[in-house]
Amino acid sequence: MTSQAFEAHDHHSCIAEGVASAVQICAERNLQLTAARQRVLEILLSEHRAMGAYEILEHLRAEGLGSQPPVAYRALEFLTKNGFAHRIERLNAFIACSHLDNAHAPVFLICRACERVVEAEANAAQGEIDRVAKRAGFVVERAVREAEGLCPACAPTA
Predict the structure, then answer these.
(1) Could you tell me which of 3, 13, 6 has the C-alpha nearest to residue 42?
(2) What is the pLDDT of residues 62-100, one digit of tens each?
(3) Contact indicator for 61, 67 with CB cutoff of 8 Å
(4) Do 72 and 60 touch, CB atoms closer than 8 A?
(5) Closest listed residue to residue 34, CA positions, set 84, 69, 99, 68
(6) For residue 26, what are the CA distances in angstroms to 16, 75, 125?
(7) What b-and-e string marks burial along 43-68, b requiring 16 or more CB atoms within 10 Å of the CB?
(8) d(CA 71, CA 57)
């Protein structure tokens, strides 16, 4: 698990590495990473918190990249469909994927005070959801696991 989002670090590296990985993956999969899609990914990578579509749209509008909601929604749909971003159900918002290099079952740790979100990796095969589904003969295609609480900086010290 990485707690990088809860620690001080170079956000420019997050953005550069995330975009470079996305460009490479798009080339390998013959996907088109348009300017709007790439900019939405950069916006998501610039902060370690979930962002709503309208907040993203405000960034795009200010930069002259689009002012209509479909611009943001289409970019977010592409990014989530192809694994470059995740939708945080609890917040009805999106976050850039921090594990582009491998298939994974993310768990999202959401700080209710500072609104930072960390994507941690978990072993899906060991989860209770999978055990219950297996007993029922159900095949899980997607599960969202989110935990809300306080990050190390916001939690009261004991």
Answers:
(1) 13
(2) 988 877 888 899 999 999 999 999 999 889 999 998 877
(3) yes
(4) yes
(5) 84
(6) 15, 14, 28
(7) bbbbbbbbbebeebbebbeeeebbee
(8) 8
pTM: 0.81
Query: Starting from the edge strand earliest in sequence, which strands make up the sheet with 105-111, in order?
Result: 117-122, 105-111, 145-149
Q: Provide the residue type at 100 as one letter.
A: L
Could you say which DSSP state residue 116 is in?
A: B
Residue 55's alpha-carbon distances to 67, 76, 116, 133, 150, in angstroms, are 11, 12, 15, 36, 23
**Side chain identity at 6, as an amino acid letter?**
F
Question: pLDDT at residue 125 above 80?
Answer: no
Chain-centre distance of CA 61, in angstroms?
A: 21
DSSP string, 139-154: --S---EEEEE--TTT
List the beta bridge partners of residue 120. 107
State the Cα–Cα distance between residues 111 and 91, nearest whole angstrom: 11
d(CA 90, CA 148): 9
What are the residues whose beta carbons fall under 8 Å from the beta carbon of 59, sequence distance 6 or more?
A: 39, 43
